[in-house]
UniProtKB/TrEMBL annotation:
Pfam families recorded: FG-GAP_3
UniProt-recorded name of the protein: Cartilage acidic protein 1
Coiled-coil spans in chain: none
SUPFAM superfamilies: Integrin alpha N-terminal domain
Keywords, comma-separated and alphabetical: Signal
Organism superkingdom: Eukaryota
Keyword set includes Nucleotide-binding: no
Annotated signal peptide: 1-31
Length: 301
């Protein structure tokens, strides 16, 4: 016998109406935007350039990075954006440079690049932040196509380029980077993912069906990544060879992050690479990273 409520309405009918209303509510809710573009109202006017030359230089296809960090310690997240550079001697009214926006605390930002001293005009590709000298202020490291840069936070809303003193210039084509205390000595070490051995003057012309195209990553040899150990005195030592497995082949590095994935108290390493669909995961053992590969195509089969 079909059940009814005290008003005589079948329970099954009431359940159907409830489900229909719920479905309509979810449908309406799902069409509402989760994010709203507030770039203009926030005062962000940054324009990225890849230095496009018209001759399809190999490094033009790889974009730049950026991120949030509280550079002035006022409790509000500021924005640092990395820019490319013109490589062929012209074509733009102004020289592109990296930009730092200070958060005003009222949903707007102010360009403080010149005052802060972090407006690098190198061909930038990525950035990371961390208090490498343990003075309580967040410092900034920028990877470039060319020598990288380390900016020490002076604690007064300005930075000083200490790349040469710290010995972390990394002459390779750095793409991504990350700070982490790998050896648990209380000082942040630095890992830089590198891409390829390439120079514009040695650019190779690649064609597909007679059309000039950007070359793929395998047109230029990959280079090993760089690992800098923090000496605790404001300088670093390149320990890449010691921390790298002897049989590890160089790959075209794109991204890097640290984390203790197996909860054993040691900092492990995850590197994204432009090598098919492979990503590398390195497990730390006795102050050395032992790598392995995960093939996503194999996992999905």
């Amino acid at each position: 016998m079909r059940k009814t409520d005290p008003n005589g309405t079948p329970s099954l009918y009431r359940l159907f109406v409830f489900a229909l209303i719920s479905f309509q509510y979810c449908t309406i809710a799902s069409t509402e935007p989760i994010f709203i573009d507030v770039t203009e109202s926030a005062g962000i006017t940054f324009v990225h350039t890849d230095g496009r030359s018209g001759v399809r230089l190999f490094n033009e296809f790889l974009g730049s990075g950026g991120g949030f960090f509280d550079y002035d310690g006022d409790g509000d997240l500021d924005i640092y954006l990395v820019n490319g550079a013109v490589q062929t001697g012209g074509g733009q009214d102004q020289t592109p440079h990296n930009v730092l926006y200070r958060n005003n605390g009222d949903n707007t930002f102010t360009d403080v690049t010149d005052k802060a001293g972090v407006g690098s005009r190198a061909y930038g590709t990525g950035a990371t932040v961390g208090d490498y000298d343990n003075d309580g202020d967040i410092d900034l490291y920028v990877t470039n196509f060319g020598e990288d840069q380390l900016y020490r936070n002076n604690g007064d809303s300005t930075f000083t380029d200490v790349t040469t003193h710290a010995q972390v210039n990394n002459p390779n084509w750095g793409t991504s980077c990350a700070f982490a205390d790998v050896d648990n000595d209380g000082h942040l070490d630095l890992y830089v993912a590198n891409y390829a051995a390439y120079a514009p003057e040695n650019d190779i012309r690649c064609e597909e069906r007679g059309v000039h195209v950007y070359c793929g990553p395998h047109a230029y040899p990959a280079v090993h990544d760089t690992f800098y150990k923090n000496n605790g005195d404001g300088t670093f030592t390149d320990m890449s060879v010691l921390y790298r497995p002897s049989d590890l082949m160089p790959q075209h590095g794109l991204g890097v992050t640290f984390g203790d994935y197996d909860a054993d108290g040691d900092t492990d390493l995850y590197v994204a690479q432009r090598s098919g669909s492979e990503l590398s995961v390195s497990k730390q053992r006795k102050r050395q990273f032992f790598g392995g590969c995960i093939n996503f195509r194999r996992m999905l089969q």
